[in-house]
What does this fold into?
Amino acid sequence: MLKYIDSHAHYYSHDFDEDRDELLPRLYESGVHRIINIGCSVKSSIKCAEMAEKAEYLYNAAGIHPEYANDVEDAYKDIIREICTREKTVALGEIGLDYHYEGYDRDKQIKLFREQLEMAQELQLPVVIHSRDAAADTMDILKEYKPKGVLHCYSGSAEYAKEIIRLGMYIGFTGVLTFKNAKKAVETVKTIPLDRILVETDCPYMAPEPFRGKRSDSGMIVKVLEKIAGLKGISAEEAAEITMENTYRLFEKLR
Ligand SMILES: [Zn+2]
It folds into this structure.
């Protein structure tokens, strides 16, 4: 049985309301050794922390996603900071920039991103970074702060990933890696060192082939591990073991 970690999940999502309590223990028993639930707002960050209190294999991250940059209130700082001091909160995130939709004000996103990178520095916590259609600005800001952390759900070029790794960061791969059109992500896995790779679901999104378009769950990471194993010429067991070690190395509060 493969034993692995899902480094990025959103099990508070309504998509899991029907079967969450039955699904999570089943995943744990089937090899998902640890799951890190990632907050996107004040509300979901609180929820992730509450879930982590209820099961030994659940951990969490707290932060405000750029899609909330327009309306987040300043009080978020105290709440996120408090959650970050809890025992099972392993990172600050997800935070970053999303220029895909016109609706999110870019200046506000940058301000929110910087504030949270500063908070992570102050708390000495790694960060989970979301970056969509904002590669240049994300890189500029990361170069400025040089945080410990992971660039999650990666689908960019190998060159960009190498630059991220030179900053000391990790690259997270979801089911997207298994898609037919994921040529850049495939090229990236081939060329970056194994000790910089994390695996994740981003569930309920990004289900791998052959489940593309369906709700994803941590069990589907096996497909991502098999893909990485094939690209690196190692076994799925080795891919699971190495990515698990990487996750423990990055998130020091994860045990
Ligand atoms: Zn996410």
About this structure: The two ends are 20 Å apart (CA to CA). The chain has a mean pLDDT of 97.
